[in-house]
Every structure is written in structure tokens, then in C-alpha cells.
Write a structure and sequence with these properties.
With 113 residues, the chain is an alpha+beta fold. It folds into two domains: 30 residues; 75 residues, no CATH class. It has two helices and six strands. Strands 1, 2, 3, 4, 5 and 6 form a six-stranded mixed sheet that branches. The longest helix has 27 residues.
Amino acid sequence: MRHGSSSVRKLLLLLMVACLLSTGTGYAQLRTLPANAKRTTVGQPQMLPYVELGGKVVRLAPGGVIYDQNNRTIVHGALPADADVVFTTDMHGDVARMYILTPQEQAQFNQRK
């Protein structure tokens, strides 16, 4: 019986390692940013629903979403000043989506110029 429980432990350990390795690969992939996104820098904090982008105060759309560098949604108050971002607007010109760029994404945008 002792030999059987040892093989079960090894199998469980192997499964745990496989799960850990597979979850790490998802974070290493780059996200796909909208092709029509505009790049700018976040300015000083503003009262909700406004945000300063590139020296201009604009409105965050109702239902607008801000994504951090790990592609998690964050609240307006967590948006860091001087962050390098890309954003899209809705039909009213309000900011619909905003993505804080990672260093790799910044390098990709720099190469496009």
C-alpha cells in the first residue's frame, strides 16, 4: 500500500507543477490593443468622470474601462499621473477604453513612428 500512495503523491505533484506552469504562460503574452487607439500621457488627477490626457481634460464615458499593465480593470482614482496610455473614444468623443502601456508595448509604439 505504501508504494501506491507514493505514486499518487508524485502524480499530484506533477499535476500541480503543470498547472503552475500553464498559468504563468498566459501572463507572458502581449495583449491586443485596438488598432484605432491614440497614444498620450495621463496628466494630473481630475474629479470623476474627467481625466487629463495629453494636457486636455476629457470625459470618461459612462461604462468606460481603464486597464492596467496586467490587463486588469482599475478604478479612475487608481490611474497614475504621467502614465503612458492608449485610448479609444465613443461616438460622443468620451474615453471608452484606456490601456496603461507596458514597457514592451511602449517600445512597439515607438517603432511604429
